[in-house]
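Hey L., structure's done. Input below.
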Amino acid sequence: IYFKGIEAGKVPYFPHADSIIYAISTSICFQAVMEVQNLRPSYWKFLLRLTKGRFALMNRKVLDVFGTEASKNFKGFIPKLDPRYTVVPPELPLELS
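Output:
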């Protein structure tokens, strides 16, 4: 959209604007994964519509070790993992020392 605006002469060109736009977009996605509780509910609904509900299907329990409380709003969610591609079987609790 930014480059179409430049072509139409409605938006000025900024050096490295594409990198800045990408960085901002990526940081918002990381926040949506790590700290859902800090997003506005309307923005969370927008992300769910945009990703067809896939943002809610992420395994956030593995991120709790970083202190983000990522699984706070997803207490009952346990992803269906294929045991062929996991190190720890999904039904076993993971103990970190």
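The chain is about 35% helix and 0% strand. The two ends are 48 Å apart (CA to CA).

-- N.
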